[in-house]
Description:
This protein has about 675 residues and is of the alpha/beta class.
Amino acid sequence: MxxxxxxxxxxxxxxxxxxxxxxxxxxxxxxxxxxxxxxAESGINIVMTFSCTHxxxxxxENWDVITKCLRDLTDACHRHGILVVEHHSxxxxxxxxxxxxxxxxxxxxxxxxxxxDSWEGLRDYVSLDTIKGTESFRQIDGRTGEPxxxxxxxxxxxxxxxxxxxxxxxxxxRLYKETGIDGIMTDDVQxxxxxxxxxxxxxxxxxxxxxxxxxxxxxxEWESFYDDFENPVFIAWQKFKKESTLEFQERVDEHFKGLGxxxxxxxxxxxxxxxxxxxxxxxxxxxxxxxxxxxxxxSFVIKYSWPQFLTESRHRFNMGRLKGIPSMSMFxxxxxxxxxxTWALSMAWGQLFTAxxxxxxxxxxxxxxxxxxxxxxxxxxxxxxxADVTIYWSYETANFTDPNKCRHISAVxxxxxxxxxxxxSTDMVFASEESIDNDVHSFLIVPDVWILSEDEVNKLNRxxxxxxxxxxxxxxxxxxxxxxxxxxxxAIFLAGTELDNKYYEPFNVDRWKRTxxxxxxxxxxxxxxxxxADAIIGDHVSRTVLPEKHDAMLNTYFSYDAKGENMLxxxxxxxxxxxxxxxxxxxxxxxxxxxxxxxKLTAFDLRVRESGIKKAYMFSIEFEGEKExxxxxxxxxxxxRIPGNTFSGHAIIRIPTGHKEEQ
Length: 663
C-alpha cells in the first residue's frame, strides 16, 4: 500500500471514522481498538474523521478533549494499518440568534449523537454576546457592513484576516504534533453572507492593492454594485475572492511543509457544476490534492438525485485524469440497497467509493463490496475513458458571466444527463486544458460558452483538424472573448435547445428534521430528455454500447482497464428511480433493483461497436465467479447475449481487447 512513505492513491479504500459523544467522553483504548479493527477488517485502509465537533471554532474551549480523542483514535487506526486524515470546518460556527436557530443547532448535534448540553459551557460560549476571541475574525457582509451569516446559522471567518490565520495555523500545528494524524482536510474554505462577503478591512485593503479598485460602501452603493456582471469592479471582486480561497489552501500546504511534515490532502466539494457564489477554488487548487471527490450530500435523496451526482462525476473524473490521481464519490447510504446502488454508480463512473451513514456501523455490508473490489482491483481502478460525446466545461464562463442570462451551467447538466439516458457514453474536458485528446474524445459539445479565448479557438480548430466534431449551443463567445473565426465554417451551431435548460436538480429532503420528512416528487422526464438528445446528435454520433429495449431502465457506461487490455461495460439498472407511483418521496424509498429481494432481469442483448472483438465475460457482486457469454457478430457490432436470472442491479461485462478475429 505504501510507496516511499506515501500511500498509492489507487490503493486507498476510504471510510469515515466518526467521533461523537461516546468516542470523545467515554471510549477507552479497547473500544477505539475494536472500532478501528472492524473498519480494517471491512477493507478500509484510510479514514477521514467526521464529528459532532465539525464546527471546530464553536468548540474552542474543548479543543483539549477533542485533541485527546483524535490522538486515541489515530493510535488505534495505526495499530490496524489505517491512515488518518482529520477533517473539520476551517471557519464555520454555530451562533444561534433565536429559538429557531437554537433548535437547528440541537437537531444537527442530535443527528450526530451529541447535544448542546453534552458540552459544559457550550450554550453560553456560542451565544452572541460571549463568543471569545473570534469577533474580529469574521467575514463582513457588503450589504450591511456587519458580520456575515452562513446558511448554517452562524458566523464565518475571513481567510485574509492575519489574526485568524495565525490562530488557525497554530491550532493545525498542534493537531499535527499532538495527534499523529497523516493528513488534513480544512473544509469549507468559502465566503458566505449568501454571496455578499467578504468586505472586511483586510479584504478591502488587499482588493485595492491587487486590483486597483475600491469596494463600494454598504447600502444603496452596494446594492447597485452587486450582481452587475457588466461592471469590471464586480468581476474583479469575484476573482479576488477565488484568489483568496486558493491562496489560503496554498498557505495550509506551505505551513505543514515548513514544519517538516507531509500531510495527505484529499478534498471534496458538493457541487462544482453550479454558480459558485462561495468562491470555493476547488478546481484551481488541483495541484494540492491527493484525491478529488464529490460529496453527494446528506439530505439529497439518493434514489432520485443520482442524475445530479452523475454530472458532478464527469467533472471530478477529468480533474483526476489531469493530475493522474483518483476521483471519488462520497455518499450517505444507510441500508444495503442504497449502499449497493451508490457503490455501483461509483464503479461505473470510474471513481473510488466512500460511504458514511452518519456514524452508524455498516462494516459488515462494506466488507462484501471491498472484498469484491480487491478481487477485481486490476479492472475496477484507474479506468481509462473513451467517450461518444464530451462536454466542454468553461470555468471562466461558469464563474464570471451572469447565471440569469448565460445557460452554460444548466446546459452542462441537461446535456450530460440526457446523453446518459439516451445511452451515449459521456466525458468532460476543461477549457483550461492545452489540448483535447482525439483518441479519447471524438464529438465535443460546447454548451453556451460565452468566454472563449484565442487559445481555446485554436485548440478547438486543432481538434477538428484531427478528425473531431464540435457542436456549439447557445451563443458562443456572445459577450466577451475572441470571434470564432474559422470555427464558424467547421463546427455545428444550434441557437439553443431544450436541453440547455432542462435537467434534474437533486431532490432534497431535510434529514436534520426531528421526524422523517417527505416532499412532493419532481416531474420525471428522462425519456423526453433522451429523445431530444438522440434527435439532435443521432445523425452525428453512433453509440458504442447499445442495450436492446428492455422493461428496466438500463444505463451503460464503458471504459478500459488501466492497461487497456479489457473493455469494461457497466450495466446499471436504474428502474424505478425516476418514476414513482406515489406523489411524495423521501430517504426511506428503496432503490428497487438493488434490494436483495428484487427479481433478476430477463435475458437481453447488448451491442458493442468495436471491430474484431469476439469474446465477452460477465461478473457481478450478485453471483460467484465470471461467466463467459454467448456472442455473435452483426456487422460492426459484437452482439452479446446477457443471460436471464443472473443479476438485477449491476453487472460488468469484460471484453478482452486482445481477442480479435483473424484478419
